[in-house]
Design a protein that fits this description.
rRNA processing; binds S-adenosylmethionine; Rossmann fold; four-stranded antiparallel beta sheet; rRNA_ssu_MeTfrase_B; 17 helices; N-utilizing Substance Protein B Homolog, Chain A
Amino acid sequence: MNNLRALAAEVLYQVVDQGQSLNQVLPIAASKVNPKEKALLQQLCYGVLRYLPSLEHYCRELLAKPLKGKQRVFQFLLYVGIYQLQHMRIPPHAAVAETVNALQALNAPGLKGLVNAVLRNFQRRQDELEQAAEQNEVCKYNHPGWFIKLIKSAYPKQWQQILAANQQQAPMWLRVNQQHHTTQQYLDKLNGASISARLVDGFTDAILLDSACDVFSLPGFADGACSVQDGAAQMAARLLDPQEGERILDACAAPGGKTCHILELANKLDVIALDCDQSRLNRVQENLDRIGLSATLQCADASTPDTWWDKQLFDKILLDVPCSATGVIRRHPDIKWLRRAADIEQLATLQASILETNWSLLKPGGTLIYATCSVLPQENSDQVKEFLAKHQDAVHQPLHDNDTLAQPGWQFLPELNDGFYYAKITKKL
Ligand SMILES: C[S@@+](CC[C@H](N)C(=O)[O-])C[C@H]1O[C@@H](n2cnc3c(N)ncnc32)[C@H](O)[C@@H]1O
């Protein structure tokens, strides 16, 4: 099957109903369509995941009874159809005709009448349906109710802005390998190659592209001149501030964006890049190979150092712990539907255990950076606050004026950059 709308419906079914990650299922579907159609397939899948609650609401109104069981794939095809009518510039008659045609590929030509009728009715009743959806907070903001509640309570003034940012397409950022070029030099090279981009204040190694492009069109990409990495994610290595000759642990390293950045910033580093997932660790090696730098890779559980640690203390430790990834929803809209409220508590427990056990691996005088790509205080400032209260030998190092013991750390909210959190803790001598 290589009908892209049919493939989109199947991908969405696998993600939303079967709990699979978009990162896993979308590439398989994309390998079945012709290269020119890949962008549209991705846009349809991302778009439906961004607007899922409102699309569900419209279909509840438009279908006499919901499609169930194996027929759920057709329900997702309806979402694909309505998403095109509501959010894309595809001429409506083409959107309807192509969506109806997808039923052939899904071996359900008998449903053509139904799908056609639902999409035509949506066109007729669009204003009324949209107004009704606005009355319900989950449909209005297109986020799960539990998440809206947590964000409202954590950010009483900014919650709507955060939810709106999550609905946007993320821009493409580059990290310039300072061993090859200064950031300005590389920007000049990009401009010379007619790739329009700019520097952003406060992000030393970063360049923001005006529009996304194929990485192999970037000058020197294959030789490691730059990497694709969000601006806020690039703060990790700068805050760790690696110095020549240091022994550094990157405890949750895969796919290695931050490991590579650390290695680009100083010479003769002894970096251990550890991750519990071997397949993801293989990607660290691929990234290291491309930039031509090396680290010791270790597949192990960061929370059980007894199983892997050689008893040599570290000068610096980066803990980019597993988290809800609620700061990167715009890049991974499936997070909204795969995460559950109960996950947050479980993740906080795992994060506390990784922080606790790795603290004893740090030299007196050493520095630990705790990082997440979450916007939830439960995984961020609450976590660090509790840790600091328990450890007399831990010294909180403020990263800006509002980084206080009452609410430690530096919370980046999703805007130009992704949502990220950092806290810096040093160990008393
Ligand atoms: C946020 S990602 C790390 C991103 C990475 N630092 C980068 O910049 O490319 C978190 C990583 O933690 C790993 N992980 C989860 N639980 C772990 C554990 N108990 N021990 C070690 N790694 C773990 C996951 O496999 C995942 O690769």
